[in-house]
Prior knowledge:
Elements: H1 2-6, E1 14-16, H2 17-20, H3 24-32, H4 39-58, E2 64-66, H5 72-79, E3 100-103, H6 106-118, H7 129-135, E4 145-148, H8 153-169
Parallel strand pairs: 1-2, 3-4
Amino acid sequence: RIHHLTTNQPTFPFFVSELLCSSLSLTTAKMSKGIPLTxxxxxxxxxxxxxxxxxxxxxxxxxAVSCSALQQKYRxxxxxxxxxxxxxxxxxxxxRVKFVCLEASxxxxxxxIRRRSMEGEHFMPASLLQSQLDLLQIxxxxxxxxxxxxxxxxxxxxxxxxxxxEQLASTVC
Length: 173
């Protein structure tokens, strides 16, 4: 739902990663059957997403992407969308690829997944949530923006965009 609201914001071009990568149809089919993804499933999708981000950044555009980058190694791949970023360098503050974690309890997330699945808006069943939470790594050193996802969706979008504007304004180009 957040990505629907974000697409109406003039601040950033926005795309949903599930709609971007043709290779993702196999992974969404796998997840919709309740089968967790492996790194072998995720890496090609993340690399395609990184390339799409790099194309936008190379043209001087800012872009927002909706995706699940649960582990630091996945975020490192996406950070490489900024051609000045060096993987493993730990130089997150100067990287133009930023991340937000929408934070809510497992119960709230499970309820939302069930609701969205019933409405045909999401492919992942709630039964996979725990496997996703088990993979989640948030390292404070990465500078990930954490946003309360229990507030109204419009407030989530407003808070996220405001915080990203601050971060991008301070990014050395």
